[in-house]
Amino acid sequence: MPKKLDTFEFPHGGRKGLDYDFAPLCDGSIWELERGVDFPIETTADTFLGALSRYANQRNLRVSKHVSDDKNTVTVRVKPKKEKKTEDGSPSEPARRGRPRKAAA
User: Fold this and answer.
1) Smallest Cα–Cα separation from 25: which of 70, 72, 62?
2) Residue 77 pairs with which residues in a beta bridge?
3) CB neighbour class for 64 (10 Å; exposed up to 12, middle 13-18, buried from 19)
4) Dihedral angle over CA of 97, 99, 103, 105, nearest 10
């Protein structure tokens, strides 16, 4: 049976951001990074790629990525997202979020 406690001091939790300068990786080149050399050994490849993807998405960039079988090497390329175009070749308007607006009467 579990033990009921009257009090417990929980350690401060929360997500701590990865302290890494992603900007040099965002030049469109293909980069191979090794865990423990190019990013901290404590950081898994999946965590590193997740942080890179969030960084890129906030800057309207996309990430192509590959993780080695041993999960110690990641290969990435960060490039601008392709702009969607209409049939006449002009850029499309960004997609609207939420409910569609009612037509004016």
Assistant:
1) 62
2) 30, 64
3) exposed
4) -130
Residue given tokens 């041993």 in the structure block:
70
Please tell me whether residue 35 adopts helix, strand or coil conformation: strand
Mean pLDDT by 10 residues, the chain (105 residues): 83 68 95 95 93 94 96 95 73 64 67
d(CA 100, CA 105): 15
Whole-angstrom distance, CA of residue 77 vs CA of residue 89: 27
Which residue blocks in 1-82 are alpha helix, DSSP H? 45-58
Q: Counting Cβ atoms within 10 Å, is residue 40 exposed (0-12), middle (13-18) or buried (19+)?
A: middle
SS3 93: coil
